[in-house]
Fold this sequence. Notes:
Blueprint: E1 7-11, E2 22-28, H1 34-40, E3 47-53, H2 59-71, E4 76-81, H3 87-97, E5 102-106, E6 110-112, H4 117-126, E7 131-133, E8 136-137, H5 148-157, H6 162-165, E9 177-181, H7 182-187, H8 200-209, E10 214-216, E11 221-223, H9 229-254, H10 258-267, H11 272-284, H12 290-305
Parallel strand pairs: 2-3, 2-5, 3-4, 7-10, 8-11
Antiparallel strand pairs: 1-4, 5-9, 6-11, 7-9
Helix pairs in contact: 5-12, 9-12, 10-12, 11-12
Amino acid sequence: MNAPVNALRLENAAWADAQLRVSVLIPTFRDDPCALLKALDQALAPVEVVVLDDGGGDDVLAERIARRIERMRVPACFIRLARNEGRARGRNRLASQARGGHLLFLDSDMLPDTPDFLDRWAAVADSGAAVAFGGFTLDQTPPRPEHALHRAMALKSDCTPAPERAKAPEKHVFTSNLLVRRDVFETIGFDEGFSGWGWEDVEWAMRVARQYPILHIDNTATHLGLDPAPVMAAKYEQSAANFARVVANHREVVSAYPSYKVAKLLKSVPLRGVWRPMLKRIALSEAAPVSIRAFAMRLYRAALYSEAV
């Protein structure tokens, strides 16, 4: 497959005559979604799969994805962009290519936890749900020393059961495993003013929650793509501007979040330029206990966010 001039589109043999209810939408940027595609190809539910390579620039990976798409039994389509559009715009583009009445956003580094994963989502779609989040786990993620910090933080704050998530429904919405009714997304898409990593999905959910109920269920997928600590820190640094955008537009909502409250407290602490780098050094230190590193990383993220509160 040759490198695209602007965008390349490949449809498999099953695409043209598909009858479906759910469009599974998978953006990828230099991550290999083939394990996920293989799992989805076992589904009996009436679905289609659309994969977007958001300007990753890896010809070998793009060729591998294209070959997998061609071999799939379920209707599938691969779109490859020459330039990166970003998380919000890329997902909006994916939605514009979908044909189903419901859109299921899945990250490329996810893997369903149960064989009936798509069947269960199809049943939720049949119920007419406006928005539903299925949650995620680390059940199939192999433990590696370089991912110890991310694993500890994710297990504490992200891998939560549906009843816990439902207490703050908009806060626990991520595009890693998210079902949205088409008319809802056509009314409320992702804000393309966000750039880099972080907060575009939660901010979207804040707007959605004003008009539609957000359902939380336990239909989980495993997050395979844990990051080493330096990558986590870089993502938090990237996300500070996005957090500021959320605060500017939804202060009444985000002010109830622990991350905001801690950031507010840290804002008044003097000599931030001295102690903030120290927090980062502790978080990145593999010699320190993971619990101490996780606490330091959370404080470091709050210190970054203190600029916006």
